[in-house]
Specification:
Layout (H helix, E strand, L loop, with lengths): L8 H11 L10 H10 L1 E6 L2 E6 H14 L3 H17 L12 H10 L6
Antiparallel strand pairs: 1-2
Helix pairs in contact: 3-4
Length: 116
């Protein structure tokens, strides 16, 4: 039986160790990965205008548009996002209304005056 040159165990081990990838010292948790990805700024087009906002804002905006057009799946997803946000909230909820032609029209149609 002819075989190649005999190599010592130390030589084989050194070669194996050299080619191995090292694991990072600390791995991110799933929650840290989600936080990092959802806070990343993305570019989207809203009514033909480019806007930059966080990925989570873009997701919620898209879900709201689909929910308002009648998608029950989008409504369920929005409720899940709301539950998730409420479970992680470290401050009170803030509600902001943006004035636009749409909100003015809604306010005008729903306002009944002092006699109701």
């Amino acid at each position: 039986m002819a075989s190649g040159p005999i190599k010592s165990a130390a030589t084989r081990g050194a070669r194996r160790a050299k080619g191995r990838r090292r694991r990072p010292a600390r791995r991110e948790s799933t929650l840290e990965i989600m936080d990092r990805l959802l806070t990343r700024r993305v570019s989207i087009s809203v009514s033909g205008q480019a806007r930059r906002l966080s990925a989570s804002e873009a997701i919620v905006l898209q879900l709201m548009q689909k929910a308002m057009s009648g998608s029950p799946r989008a409504w369920r997803a929005l409720l899940k996002y709301q539950e998730f946000a409420n479970s992680r909230a470290d401050r009170s909820t803030e509600l902001r209304f943006v004035e636009s032609d749409y909100t003015r029209a809604i306010a005008k149609s729903s306002w009944r005056g002092p006699d109701g």
